Amino acid sequence: MENELAQKVLAGDRLSLSRAISKVENRTAGYGDILDILFRHGGNAYRIGITGPPGAGKSTLVDQVTSRALDLGKKVGIVAVDPTSPFSGGALLGDRVRMRNLAAHEGVFIRSMATRGSLGGLATATKDVSILFDAFGMDYIIMETIGVGQVELDIADACDTTVVVVVPESGDSIQAMKAGLMEIADIIVVNKADREGAMQLACELEFISGLRQSASDWRYPIQMTEAIHNKGIDELWSAILSHMEYVRKSGHFETNRKRQIKSRIQELLETKIRSYVEQELLPRTRLDREVERVLRREVSPFQAADEIFKHIQSRTG
Asked: What are the φ and ψ backbone dihedral angles of 144, each rounded to 5 degrees?
């Protein structure tokens, strides 16, 4: 069944792609088999991350950037990560509403996903969904994520080019630097550039980028855009293509992919180990007993963890 669905995805069937994404996102039985099959048929898509604080105009930027890719005859898969609704637990779907101009284009596939508590700004299954888009034949995969300050680092482990979007209203640029967003940026966009303070923000970011430039010889550009008015988008698209050319010619593309693969394997391994420990080696009653002991101040959390670890070691020989 899973093999049949995977083959239909490879054949370009959009309905099958949607079904496969749902399986992966919901962790339905057999989703791993689909990923195993489709992973071997990918590796060609270029992944672009667009992140920043809420209200920065990311969705409009994605809409405009995608249009540039479509003008070149490229196919684009978009994963729009929405905050989880506190009521339904699902995505609010605001991104898909704002990208309605693209929704009917045969060269675009848009999927909104809920964060479901993921702290890195990416839905847990986003990286897996990019495997499906890749195998489907997408030339570009764009991941739009919510900006959540100091923990918005997950995007760097999922994309080849990371675009950080800020707006004049985001406040002091020094604070933005402290938030860690600039640490992961390959391109910085000051959107809503027609608003007061935009030029000052761009100048401050330009100055700070010179002070904090990494050992890499890529100096991330500061792009001014008015996405809603379609201004500065050509320059932004040009910067994305320039960075894509840079990482490929410099060898950083393969280096980054290796780092990302290693990180992903470690992440999956940690999940499996945690699940195995919880289900096979650590009875819930034992953990609950230690919790009660810590609550009564009989032991510290550190001592409780040591005791639990010794118990696990004894079970594994």
From this structure: -100, 125
Asked whether 114 and 85 are in contact (CB, 8 A), the reply is: yes
pLDDT reported for residue 312 = 85
In this structure, are 46 and 147 located in the same domain? yes
User: Distance between alpha carbon 72 and the CA centroid of its chain, in Å?
Assistant: 25
231 burial (CB, 10 Å; 0-12 / 13-18 / 19+) is middle
Q: Outline where DSSP puts E strands in the chain.
A: 46-52, 76-82, 108-114, 140-146, 161-166, 187-190, 222-224
Are 22 and 46 within one domain?
A: no
* pLDDT, averaged across the chain: 84
Phi/psi at 127 (nearest 5 deg)? Answer: -65, -35
| pTM across the whole model | 0.86
Residue 152 pLDDT: 57
- 17 half-sphere exposure, CB direction, 13 A CA radius: 22
Looking at residue 190, its pLDDT comes to 93
Token pair 């890499």 in the structure block, residue = 216
Angstrom CA distances, 159 to 32, 48, 107, 245, 246, stand at: 22, 5, 20, 15, 15
**Domain containing 291: what range?**
265-316
Per-residue pLDDT of 96-154, as tens digits, reads: 555 666 777 889 999 988 765 554 456 678 889 999 999 999 999 999 987 654 445 67
Report yes or no: 173 and 93 within 8 Å, Cβ to Cβ: no
Contact by Cβ (8 Å): 167, 55: yes
CA atoms within 13 A on the CB side of 269: 6
Check residue 277 and report its DSSP letter: I
Residue 135 lies in a domain: yes
User: How much is the pLDDT for 87?
Assistant: 45
- Neighbour order of strands in the sheet with 76-82: 108-114, 76-82, 140-146, 46-52, 161-166, 187-190, 222-224
Structure tokens belonging to residue 106: 């045969």
